[in-house]
Amino acid sequence: MGIFDWKHWIVLLVVVVLVFGTKKLKNFGSDLGESIKGFRKAMNDEENKPAEQTPPPAQPVPPVQAPHQQSTAQPQQGHTIEGQAQPVQEPQRKD
């Protein structure tokens, strides 16, 4: 006799039927079957589907400046934030 003897499986089956009821188990089985069918269909559709060509990636467009600002505007420099990092101290817990 092993851990999962046929008697154990029968007792387990009876407990599951008592807890869930036959109607819920039937609905669960049919829902599981439908989801497996849907998954298989989706996998077969993906395999049979011809490879579509993907469009080339879009190129970034430079920002447009107003005409009156172009002559007087200087090229913008990157902004640097200066500061000093400080360690964060966790609040003390009062247990």
TrEMBL record:
GO terms for biological process: intracellular protein transmembrane transport; protein transport by the Tat complex. Gene3D superfamilies: 1.20.5.3310. Keywords: Cell inner membrane, Cell membrane, Membrane, Protein transport, Translocation, Transmembrane, Transmembrane helix, Transport. One of its GO terms (cellular component) is TAT protein transport complex. Residues 39-95 are annotated as: Disordered. Residues 53-65 have a biased composition (Pro residues). InterPro entries: TatA/B/E, TatA/E. It is found in: Cell membrane. Its main location: membrane. It is a single-pass membrane protein. GO terms for molecular function: protein transmembrane transporter activity. The Tat system comprises two distinct complexes: a TatABC complex, containing multiple copies of TatA, TatB and TatC subunits, and a separate TatA complex, containing only TatA subunits. Substrates initially bind to the TatABC complex, which probably triggers association of the separate TatA complex to form the active translocon. Belongs to the TatA/E family. NCBIfam families: PRK00442.1 (NF001681), tatAE (TIGR01411). Part of the twin-arginine translocation (Tat) system that transports large folded proteins containing a characteristic twin-arginine motif in their signal peptide across membranes. TatA could form the protein-conducting channel of the Tat system. This is Sec-independent protein translocase protein TatA. It comes from Pseudomonas putida (Arthrobacter siderocapsulatus).
